[in-house]
Structure formats: structure tokens, C-alpha cells
Design brief:
By secondary structure, the protein is mainly alpha-helical. It has three domains: 8-85; 91-145; 164-211, no CATH class. The protein has helices at residues 8-11, 14-17, 21-37, 51-58, 62-66, 87-117, 122-147, 164-172, 182-196, 202-211, and strands at 42-43, 72-75, 79-82. The chain has a three-stranded antiparallel beta sheet with strand order 1-3-2. The protein is elongated. The protein starts with 7 loop residues before the first helix and ends in a 20-residue tail after the last helix.
């Protein structure tokens, strides 16, 4: 057992009240050992153990064991019989353990029996079901086409998304941004986002380019007129 079940009536008993603190501590050590061994509260031949063995296993000394106390006694065969040991709880724990083992064994037997009855396994069974469902779907689709019903064609897969380098290259060739240094503006936008701790998304960069000023074209500039003054 992993715990000790001590009823309050035991702590109020004359045997416990009449014992001194050292005897009570010895009794608790004896209970702890018996609970771990599940020996029914009897330590076979315990009174014949050496003092070193008593200290190692029971955590008590021989002088503490032979001290006269009503919390334990010497029984036949020099065994230690511990008083107020929770024997009923020990039997309950053992019964629960047996039931748990039997239940686990029954579940394993059922699982092995299911595997024997269905050796193909669930994965293959699901595959057959999927194939059968797809066959029925194609059959229904053929019936709809024969009846003149509109059959929705499957959607074409979306083209793969362009990489950042490809996307920037497409901006350079776009007529909307002719004359704008895309790489320079991208570097400026990246620096601004890093300073402001913002994410440089494609939508953000498009808005950035839309606000960027285009350089003046030489074709739109008019030549300066030079006037000479007659002297």
C-alpha cells in the first residue's frame, strides 16, 4: 500500500495514549514497513533481526523494539505483530489490484480477438470505404449528366504564391511604378517598419509605393528661355 489508513479511534485508544512519544514513533515505523510489504501487520521473525537490519529496514533500534508497549507484541516464531494495523484496507487494496489486472487482461483479449476477426486492420477498411464512396459519387455524377443537370466542375488548383524576390521583380516591371526605385523604397520601408516595430507586409509596401513621389521626367520639363538685352 502507498498510504496508511489510521482511524481517529486508534489515536484515542488507551494503547496509543498510554505510550510515550518514542514508542509512538516506533509504532509508526512498524506500520510503514508492514504497509509497504502488505504482510497483514506481522513481521515474520522480526525479533531475531540484528540491530543493523532493524535500522535499515524498520528504521528502529533493537532497544526500541524490545521496549514493552501495547502498540506491538511478540508473537509465535519471534514475529512482530503490530497492533491496529489496517488489515481490512490492505485486503481492499489487494482486491482492487486483482480486479484491475483482470480487467486489463480482458481488454487485451478482446483487442486480440478483434484483430483476429479483422486482420486487414482499420486503415485498409477505411480505404475500401473511401473507394466505395468515390465510386458511388462518380456513378451519381454520371446520372446527373445523363439527366441534363448542371454538374459543377472541380475548381482548378490555385497557382503557387510568388516568392518575395519574384514579387518585387514584378513590381519593377509594373507600369504603375515606372520611374520608382523599388529596391530603394523597399529598403526605406523596411527601415521604417523596424524602427516602428511593425510588420513589412506586401499590402503595406504597396501603400508605401502609392505614396512615393516619382522623379520628374525630362520630357515634361520645358527648356529655359534666354533673353538677350540689346545694348
Amino acid at each position: 500500500m502507498e498510504w496508511l489508513n489510521i482511524h481517529t479511534s486508534t489515536l484515542d485508544s488507551p494503547e496509543f495514549i498510554g505510550a510515550d512519544p518514542n514508542q509512538r514513533a516506533t509504532w509508526l515505523c512498524l506500520l510503514r514497513y508492514c504497509a509497504g510489504q502488505e504482510n497483514g501487520g506481522v513481521i515474520e521473525g522480526g525479533f531475531e533481526w540484528s540491530d543493523r537490519k532493524l535500522q535499515q529496514l524498520l528504521r528502529i533500534t533493537r532497544s526500541e523494539l524490545v521496549d514493552r508497549c501495547l502498540l506491538w507484541r511478540k508473537s509465535a516464531g519471534d514475529s512482530i505483530e503490530v497492533n491496529f494495523y489496517p488489515l481490512a484496507k490492505e485486503k481492499q487494496v489487494q482486491a482492487n489490484r486483482v480486479n484491475a489486472i483482470a480487467g486489463a487482461a480482458a481488454r487485451w483479449e478482446k483487442r486480440e480477438a478483434d484483430a483476429t476477426c479483422h486482420p486487414v486492420g482499420n486503415a485498409v477498411g477505411i480505404g475500401f470505404a473511401d473507394a466505395e464512396g468515390k465510386g458511388r459519387g462518380r456513378e451519381e455524377e454520371g446520372k446527373k449528366k445523363a439527366a441534363g443537370d448542371v454538374v459543377k466542375e472541380p475548381k482548378a488548383p490555385k497557382p503557387p504564391k510568388a516568392t518575395d524576390a519574384e514579387w518585387l521583380a514584378s513590381l519593377k516591371t509594373s507600369p504603375a511604378y515606372t520611374g520608382i526605385d523599388i529596391e530603394r523604397e523597399h529598403a526605406k520601408a523596411a527601415m521604417w517598419c523596424e524602427t516602428k516595430r511593425r510588420n513589412l507586409s506586401r499590402a503595406f509596401f504597396i501603400n508605401w509605393l502609392n505614396r512615393a513621389e516619382k522623379p520628374m521626367s525630362s520630357t515634361n520639363s520645358k527648356p529655359l528661355a534666354i533673353h538677350s538685352n540689346a545694348w
